[in-house]
């Protein structure tokens, strides 16, 4: 369908959670001197103007990144993520929000590799232009799920795969599981992080059961809800499912998630949780 545009939602509570987890994984992988591949299957445009028509129409970033980026009590777990956001915003005005490709670009080292794919005809040229001068990066107009077959395992045998589809189609909830299976068959030691929205809880329960049925071990679930589950239209929560999480990630998210929930959801609704779908 390719109708989804992340520019309407950039910097919302779901982005804050996703990019917090992303930055913590990258920082953990950087603790070893060996290079690694960052593979982003659904990259989007890369950079989003928060004063633009789309972001202004929804104002979702006002209840997301805008609530935390200038606070003086930010936990250490958020420092890498917020440093990347601040890099694209000189001074105190929040003008731009970096998507996952630009956060990766900011945090990765000179010898790491970046592989990005995007199919949307408007977003792809924007993404390509962002990385035109980055020798570490390969940007393709291609199916992100296919990259889990063609690009894995990386030559370095170290890698982080972010899977962040738009969930326009109901089949996306099954396709992400199939994609992870394909990648895992080729590269069982990689770190895989899957973002998901909670619109209907039953879809997430089914997806997690399907992941359990793959036989893959070490699957961690991290979720932040701003409202209770509902059968009404709209996203009430979002989460990250991480396969082979770095050993520190579970505790890091247990430490920072209550703070994020308190700041992003001052009315106290919803929930925050970190739990294993499949342990060791």
From TrEMBL:
The keyword Transferase applies. It catalyses: adenosine(2030) in 23S rRNA + S-adenosyl-L-methionine = N(6)-methyladenosine(2030) in 23S rRNA + S-adenosyl-L-homocysteine + H(+). GO terms for molecular function: 23S rRNA (adenine(2030)-N(6))-methyltransferase activity; RNA binding. The record marks 4 as: Interaction with substrate rRNA. Keywords: Methyltransferase, RNA-binding, rRNA processing, S-adenosyl-L-methionine, Transferase. It comes from the Bacteria. Specifically methylates the adenine in position 2030 of 23S rRNA. InterPro entries: DNA_methylase_N6_adenine_CS (IPR002052), RlmJ (IPR007473), SAM-dependent_MTases_sf (IPR029063). Belongs to the RlmJ family. The active site is at 164 (proton acceptor). One of its GO terms (biological process) is rRNA base methylation. Monomer. This is Ribosomal RNA large subunit methyltransferase J. S-adenosyl-L-methionine binds at residues 19, 42, 100, 118, 143-144, 164. The keyword Iron does not apply. Gene3D superfamilies: Vaccinia Virus protein VP39. It holds the Pfam family RsmJ. Its EC number is 2.1.1.266.
């Amino acid at each position: 369908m390719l109708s989804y545009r992340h520019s309407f939602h950039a910097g919302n509570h779901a982005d804050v959670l996703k990019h917090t987890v992303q930055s913590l994984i990258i920082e953990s992988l950087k603790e070893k001197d060996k290079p690694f591949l960052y593979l982003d299957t659904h990259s989007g445009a890369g950079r989003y103007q928060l004063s633009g028509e789309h972001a202004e129409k929804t104002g979702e970033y006002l209840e997301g990144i805008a609530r935390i980026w200038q606070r003086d009590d930010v936990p250490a777990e958020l420092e890498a993520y917020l440093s990347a956001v601040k890099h694209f915003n000189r001074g105190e005005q929040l003008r731009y929000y970096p998507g996952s490709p630009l956060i990766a670009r900011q945090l990765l080292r000179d010898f790491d590799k970046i592989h990005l794919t995007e199919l949307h005809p408007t977003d792809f040229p924007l993404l390509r232009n962002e990385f035109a001068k980055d020798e570490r990066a390969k940007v393709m107009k291609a199916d992100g799920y296919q990259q889990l077959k063609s690009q894995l395992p990386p030559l370095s045998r170290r890698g982080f795969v972010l899977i962040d589809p738009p969930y326009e189609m109901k089949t996306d909830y099954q396709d992400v599981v199939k994609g992870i299976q394909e990648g895992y068959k080729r590269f069982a030691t990689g770190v895989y992080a899957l973002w998901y929205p909670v619109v209907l809880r039953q879809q997430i329960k089914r997806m997690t059961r399907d992941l359990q049925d793959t036989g893959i071990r070490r699957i961690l679930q991290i979720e932040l809800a701003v409202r209770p589950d509902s059968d009404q239209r709209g996203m009430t929560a979002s989460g990250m499912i991480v396969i082979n999480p770095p050993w520190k990630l579970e505790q890091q998210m247990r430490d920072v998630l209550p703070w994020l929930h308190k700041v992003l959801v001052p009315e106290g609704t919803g929930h925050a949780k970190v739990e294993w779908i499949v342990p060791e």
